[in-house]
Amino acid sequence: MAAPLDAYSPQRRPSLFDNCWLQLATGVVAMVAIANMQYGWTLFVEPIRDKFGWDRALLQWTFTFFVLAETWLVPIEGYFVDRFGPRVMVAGGGLLIGMGWQINAVASSLGAFYAGGIIGGVGAGIIYGTSVGNALKWFPHRRGLAAGVTAAAFGAGSAVTVQPISDMIESRGYEAAFFWFGLAQGAIVLFCSLVMRAPRDVVRPHDARPSREIESSERAEPTAPPAERNFTWLEMGQTRTFWLMYLMFTMVSVGGLMATAQLRSMAEDFGVAQSPVSLFGITMAALPLAMKLDRILNGLSRPFFGWVSDHLGRENTMFIAFTLEGIAILLMINYARTPILFVLLTGLAFFAWGEIYSIFPALCGDLFGRKFATTNYGLLYTAKGTAALMVPLGSYLQEVTGGWSAVFMMAVVFDFLTALLALFVLKPMRRRMLSRE
Q1: Nearest Cα to 174, choosing from 42, 48, 38?
Q2: Helix H or strand E segment including 276
Q3: Model confidence over 236-271: pLDDT tens digits?
């Protein structure tokens, strides 16, 4: 069966939408629209508990199911995106994210919240995987930066809506926040689906140089592969390099996901949630200020570290960022009860954590090619879902120990271990892999 004209087909008529910068911007807007699905959840946890009296760990399975659905289905969704193009898939994703929050708005049982999380997660996964995969395909010459800019929208996109969602929860209830923001987010994604396109072929669009010259110039870059070999997901899964990357992605995701899901609970347990903090001329309660700063820094870190990795090398950048995150979380054990330090240290941890969403997709493109980039990175991205299984464990560990120190130490060990693996295992393994091609 012939591939449809929306996929990699040079027969498709050129369009105004066949512009790499427009496609990057469209992916950014779509990612901003789904950011609240993950990063806004922490605002809803305590109001839902207050209404129904459920155990926090049981309620947090909603977040875990969301992340599992968002990540573990991405390889399948990516296959359809690589085969048929992004438009129909992204439109379906927009409908699903809107539906997920509408279910949450009327849910009265844990099972209903779980269902809303799963449906919203499927939609968010389609949009996330498609947007990052499209960035890798349209910008093979700047993979780290393009993936970082796209992922930044997911990390920082919720910063502008933290206060409006919080205000709506306080004034009209969490149900109204789920309903209206879910409706708006779904509508924005549907609009983006009308614009989004895949490149007409696997060679960089709008570049007059022949493909051999493109490959030659990319071989000169330290982070680019010496030849353009496009691995299928089955071929990629047979390499040890992929499974090492999967292990590292899983370990370093744990701390960030726990903080994302439970930041409000942490702030309230430390007694700093409503403490006034002055920073950069702004005075706010510690929790909303921390959430704003965390989202902004988490977003900025993705293009920043992506750009750094394009020049300094992927593994060297990983070592720096993972070590920095480990130090920030380690300091939180002793200083998180001081409001200003809670804000600054969580911001630093989120800044260092965000880079995994730019460097790992860029490295995946470097090693395994760009033709099947959406599928291949989708398979690697399932590591985030694996890490999400640890989020309820963190809640149980906090309840058993009566504090957050054990949870923080687990994240610190994972961060430091992953930093060492990046520099001393992944780096030489990648060099050997590329030297054989």
Answers
A1: 48
A2: strand 276-279
A3: 999 999 999 999 999 998 888 887 777 888 888 888
Ordered DSSP codes for 299-361: HHHHHHHHHHHHHH-HHHHHHHHHHHHHHHHHHHHHHTTSHHHHHHHHHHHHHHHTTHHHHHH
* Domain chopping of the chain, boundaries: 20-222+232-432
Q: From CA 233, how far away is CA 237, in angstroms rounded? A: 6
Amino acid at 221: E
Written as six digits, the tokens of 432 are 């050997």
Q: Write down the pTM of the prediction.
A: 0.72
Q: Cα-flanking dihedrals φ and ψ of residue 60, to 5°?
A: -70, -10
- Report the distance separating Cα 156 and Cα 117, nearest Å: 21
Residue 388 CA to residue 19 CA, distance in Å, equals 36
pLDDT at 298: 82
pLDDT band at 5 (very low <50, low <70, confident <90, very high): very low
CATH number of this structure's domain 20-222+232-432: 1.20.1250.20
Q: How far apart are CA 319 and CA 248, in angstroms?
A: 11
Exposed/middle/buried for residue 305 (C-beta within 10 Å: 0-12, 13-18, 19+): buried
DSSP 208-227: -S-HHHHHHHHHTSTTS-SS
**Cross-strand bridge partners of residue 278:** 283
Joined together, the tokens standing for residue 114 give 């779980």
Q: Is 56 exposed, middle or buried (0-12, 13-18, 19+ CB in 10 A)?
A: middle
